Amino acid sequence: MINALKSVRHLATSTVKHTVSEFRMPVPWGEMRGRIWGPDHGRPILCIHGWSDNSGSFNTLIPLLPNDWRCLAIDLPGHGFSSHRPPGVFYSFPYYIADLRRVVEALQWKRFSIIGHSMGGNIAGLFSAMYPEMVDAVVLLDSYGFLPADVKKMNTNLRKGMDELLEYEKKMDDRRERIYAYESAKERLKAANPTLSDQSVQILLERGVRQVDSGVVFTRDIRINLTNIARMDLDQSLRLQEQIQAKVLVMRATEGLTITFPQPEEFMVAIEKGWEDKNNSIVVVEGDHHVHLNNPSVVAPLITEFLQSVAPEHMSNQAAKL
């Protein structure tokens, strides 16, 4: 087990309604970073951002949640200020699950809740299926929790992902970081995510770029854009979904995932039915794929009400003794 006191550093940055600190934790290839809000012994909540975002994705939401919650928003490896994976290593969901295990072991969290956006929601779904005893509640922000792949295309996608990495490695010696003026970086991020508000773009760029002599460079690892080689088909996704013991809130945005990243309807219908069969909550909110960042007041009350309805185990035990 990683020694929590030696391996995790919290550098206080501000004191407002929530105490906010910078989170740093060593891993074999460098470090994982993020931001952590709330008191040391508050209810533990792990917040997982979406693909190509960073922990800043939760900067506007967490201050609207109860201030006695202990919310950790991490930068996944290859994102934000966290180290990139070593050369030759893929970015795929099983690796992200191992990353989360390192984090919660360092924090000595035995049981906690997860809030996951987009890809972060899919990571949350897989983690909750693999470690059902550790997760009491999950909030899926514009995410279905699983993203099934067409089994007929499995071999093609696997081959494509491997070929892309090999081609990337052939050009590594000649590859140079592209330097942008800050305003150009803002325009590039906005073009890739047109639903982001100007404020949200600036928030994500706080950890999404770093300063160099003649401008800024993006901090994310370009390898996160390569085809994901570790995918599951619908049957595998449904079997894993059955293993989840946590209560789940599925929150879909009206102008969100189904428009931004459309998927085969039969897959999404089956996954949603799986949540319904387990008596979980499914709500639709007005907004886009980043509604939790652009307009957090829409989702914060729903998240608070849901998570408060699922009392953490230690709180339930205390109540039972009274």
From TrEMBL:
Statement: the UniProt record of this protein carries the keyword Hydrolase: yes
Q: Where is the AB hydrolase-1 domain?
A: 44-158
Transmembrane segments in this chain: where? none
Q: Which GO molecular function entries does the Swiss-Prot or TrEMBL record give?
A: hydrolase activity
User: Record's GO cellular component, any one?
Assistant: membrane
Q: Which Pfam families match?
A: Abhydrolase_1
Q: Which domain of life is it from?
A: Eukaryota
Give the keywords, sorted: Hydrolase
Q: Which PANTHER family match?
A: MONOACYLGLYCEROL LIPASE, SERINE HYDROLASE-LIKE PROTEIN DDB_G0286239
Q: Would you identify the family this protein belongs to, as annotated?
A: Belongs to the AB hydrolase superfamily.
Q: What is this protein called?
A: Serine hydrolase-like protein 2 isoform X1
Species of origin? Astyanax mexicanus (Blind cave fish)
Q: Which gene encodes it?
A: SERHL
